[in-house]
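S., here's the first fold you wanted:
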Amino acid sequence: MRSAQRFAGPALVLLTAPAAWGVPLDPDGRFEATLLLQPRLEMAFGDPPSLDPSLQRAWLGFSGHPAARLSFAFVAGVEDFGRGGDWSADLKLREGWLEWNFGERLQVDAGLMVPPWAAHTLLQEQSRLSPDDHAGLLSFPNGTAGRDVGLQARGRLFNHHLEYRVAGLGGVGTGQGLQETDYDGDGTPDADPLSPDDLPRVTARLAWSFFTPQGGPGPEGFRPRHIALELRDGVVQSQRKLVTVGVAIDHQQDALYVEHRDYTGDVVSARRADYTALTGDLLVEMPMRDGRRSLHALVAGSWFPFDEQHPQAGPSILGEGGWRFGRWEPFGSYELHDAPDDAWDWMSWHLGLALWLPERASALKIAGGAWRVGGGRDLDGCAQLQAQFAF
């Protein structure tokens, strides 16, 4: 069993034990049910052009504070339902954790969570600016995805300006990988199994907020929000001034393979390598004119992984920004990943327009642009239309 999962189980017992030992439930405890629906229509301007309707997300969440120091959050639902013509429902738990609050400076979380890495991976889905998840810039160890099981310690220091997060996660399990591949045809595995020592994946993040602090105990501070709008006297406004700079590292020993290929492109050997990724980011929400207008920006740079011979190794950059006036907000985004193997290169840009609706965090977004995978010069045009309803 993977190392982080081994200590996540006992941690869940420790977090819930105080309630079982007689810690009284809070009669004023808050509970909240949320629903996020994001239908999407994508058009590819190929030959011939194609339309791809889907349900990007349909998530039902439940969170709360049943006791003074105990919090929880669970989110389940489907993603990309109908994308590419696949209408089979992949209904599963997307996030589920318990938290014991030791004070403003320390909260301990256990369960299935988003690793505390780059800002664009941590942001709440309903608070993002563009309909794009920037998935082209997300790289993880083999066999893991955007969520992982384990423990996280977090808190705020220096009058709430500095937020720290440290997580020990399951990552790649022992034996996972290409060990069954027979490169030379002698009937025996040629690649050693990954993660032989069963060491956890460790992710750590520091973020400094110059104005409104991020984070804080409970579900409302577990994942940051980029855009926080509210309806006052029929006018969409933002009263939060946010400028946050963050750095993070993600590491697991022997969690990657570096494959070596011959002139035909066939894999002839593979060796284990450490998975290490670094990122730095800037998140901005700056209200102006009594909050009726606001500037939104997200800038991030990362490097994955730190092994020059890995085909995906190399720098990535991401930038997006928008200017909201009332309910309307034009925005743009750009992504680039430069890998030594041209097949792993990635570039995209989008321009769009968002209409923020009176309902909380609901919007209509339309964007058009182009993207390219690999080292070719041809760009593929695309357009996206997303409706977002958050209740």
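And the second, which I think is the more interesting of the pair:
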Amino acid sequence: MTPLPVRSLALAFLSLASCPSPSHPTPVYEAEPEPIEAPSAGAERPTAGEETTALAPTVELARPFVYEVRPRDPDVPASTLFGTLGRGLRLDQALPERHRTLLHSARVVVVPIDQTAEMLVRDVQRVMLVRRGSSAELYPPRIWQALTHELRDEMPLDQIRMTRPFMHVAGVLRRRARQLFPEAPNSMDLELFAYVRQRGLTLRALGTPLDEMRIVGAAPDRELVALATLYVDRPEVFARDLQETREAYLSGDEARVDAADDDPEERAVAPTLYRGLERRRDTWLRAIRRELDEGNAFLAFPASAWVGPEGLVEKLRRAGYTVTRLDGSRAGGVGSLR
């Protein structure tokens, strides 16, 4: 599997982008009115001037990223793996109705991040704020001017100045993805988290937004400045990459999703960031195996983490688990996201 670029592990950045200002960093769980075809509690909202439209019902996955996992012990019930997409598709489209009883009947639903975790202001500020001076000093003037212009609807200028570059990358990613996919404005991971909470299902999260901040914030500011510079200088390429990732997911082709995860230029300018994100996947694996050995778990993580020769699915197979991708015939009953 190619190293995972920032856009493929957008979950980290979207979680950061959903946090309020450094002085009020605790996420707020906001209930949305019915119906819940696209659960949006805790979801991000479009900025002024942006329109959202209903996604055409003809957009469907060729094959969903849903897998059955059985441990070596035949007495342990099977569990389910579900691959999410950071942006560009709603949860009700990615998780077909024929598979939803696997979610509704699970002993526990495991997700990477607790979107409602409380965080101490001082801890968030320690990771989020520039050490000294202004973040404007970190950028070439041309890039800073373009960046502040693009982010003016995402955060006040004073906040842009006081926050570190990883928060700027988060804002750019969220804004551009929301503009590119107005029909699916929310992160699928946020939708799933909200839906599980609303249904009263047992939820276990492996981390918090602060954990994500620490992983991304461990990378030198110069790496994130370089990433922000790439995004400013290549908006068309950035849009193409997001579109390709979405199309790969819609194709249902694991190899295509894996291939869409490679951007050598991004990887070259942010090696520390990449290493930190890849180590997180190994941390996930240990927790995932514990849940699989207990059985009847529903584990929802980015599809890019599951697929590929070094993805979590292959690592589980090498560890002795039987992993089978579902096509609909293996799932029992019919569920609903309503």
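Why I say that: The radius of gyration is 19 Å. The longest strand covers residues 79-84.

Talk tomorrow,
H.
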